[in-house]
Design goal:
The complex is a heterodimer of chains A (167) and B (185). With 167 residues, chain A is of the alpha+beta class. Chain A is built from 5 helices and 7 strands. Chain B has 185 residues and is of the alpha+beta class. In chain B, helix 1 packs across helix 5, helix 2 crosses helix 3 and helix 2 packs across helix 6. Classes of the chains: A alpha+beta (167), B alpha+beta (185).
């Protein structure tokens, strides 16, 4: 799943870079300084757009011709790919396709670990990734909210994913 | 996998510090989103790249102890070693094309930071590898222990064949105006 060669890192068939988590947190801190709470939407949208565009590529990788995977399987496969991102241990604990309700956890998030004791949730980029990624592989509009975070003193980071209403 | 990058289960480490994976498409969207919402986002990526690599250099010294300190005492060797380390982070194929007391030049082929512009056939008027420029500035400052500026003079996002970065001592580049990358000089 991970290939590291001189000049080229490939994860799940996608060209990638290896970054210290401090790269994201330094970036995040500077945006917080300038935008206050507005940083959340910026990072959420960046994560969502990135994964919305990337997940279909993963989907092609996951689908075996003549043996179409179920939506549940696609989500599980996506989480398995994320487990190779070296960002913590992801797990999906609830998949309710009928009501578009999902619960996703990350144990030992590398980003949240940098903010231990912060007293607030900090994983908006990841929340965006989950909304975009899950939404893309099951062809639904989803939103995601972090409800627990290591930076807030919780044991793990947890995300609630629900459908977006089109009224 | 090279000796620089250690793998434990599914986690990756360099000099005892954990690394995370960011695919080039996510990097592109992060740059775009920050560019849309923030003034001076190019500068932000430059400074973040610079600070992150300086922290990595500190880990390098802490992790390798005396052998790292010995290496750092010879700027040219230290620079070659760091260029080699950066090669294994997937940033592109990095080489040093010029090394002199006044100027250093880096060439990056297939820059990860500019790759998605090429994939999407989105031609940029200006070089886009701001984080990479900051990373090279940080590496050179760590090695030379004096402030430097790095500017990208060619970029694959501008349809150049490769990305080129020129390092100059900070004092040489002061004097107002903007360079091609939009950084104040």
């Amino acid at each position: 799943m991970v290939s590291v060669e001189k000049g080229l890192v490939v994860v799940a068939g996608e060209r990638s870079v290896l970054i210290p988590p401090s790269f994201i947190t330094l970036l995040q801190d500077r945006v917080i300084e300038e935008k206050g709470e507005g940083w959340r939407k910026i990072f959420y949208e960046a994560g969502k757009k990135a994964m919305y565009n990337l997940a279909p590529t993963y989907k092609l990788l996951m689908l075996i011709p003549g043996n179409p995977a179920s939506k549940k399987k696609l989500i599980e496969e996506l989480v398995e790919i994320w487990s190779w991102m070296s960002c913590g241990r992801p797990e999906v604990t609830k998949i309710d396709l009928k009501n578009n309700h999902f619960v996703f956890r990350v144990y030992g998030s590398t980003i949240a670990k940098q903010y231990l004791g912060r007293g607030e949730m900090v994983c908006d980029y990841l929340a965006g990734m989950v909304a975009g990624g899950f939404g893309s592989v099951i062809n639904e509009s989803l939103k995601c909210k972090e409800v627990r975070c290591m930076a807030k003193g919780d044991e793990f980071c947890e995300f609630e994913v629900t459908g977006v209403r089109h009224d | 996998m090279t000796d620089y990058i250690q793998k434990k289960h599914k986690e990756l480490f360099i000099f005892g510090e954990q690394l995370s994976v960011l695919d080039v498409r996510s990097l592109y969207y992060l740059k775009k989103e920050l560019g849309t919402n923030l003034k001076g986002s190019n500068e932000l990526f430059y400074n973040t790249g610079k600070d992150a690599v300086k922290m990595m250099q500190l880990s390098f010294v802490k992790f390798l102890g005396d052998s790292a300190r010995m290496l750092m005492s010879n700027p040219e060797n230290a620079l070659n070693e760091f260029a080699e380390v950066l090669n294994y982070l997937g940033l592109g194929e990095i080489s040093i094309s010029e090394f002199s007391p006044k100027t250093m030049k880096f060439i990056v082929r297939h820059s990860a930071e500019a790759q998605e512009y090429v994939n999407l056939k989105e031609r940029s008027k200006f070089p886009v590898c701001h984080a990479l420029a900051g990373i090279f500035a940080g590496v050179c400052e760590g090695v030379s222990r004096s402030p430097v500026k790095c500017r990208e003079t060619s970029c694959i996002a501008c349809e150049d064949d490769f990305c080129e970065f020129v390092i100059q001592k900070d004092t040489l580049t002061r004097g107002g105006g903007n360079d091609r990358q939009g950084h104040k000089t």
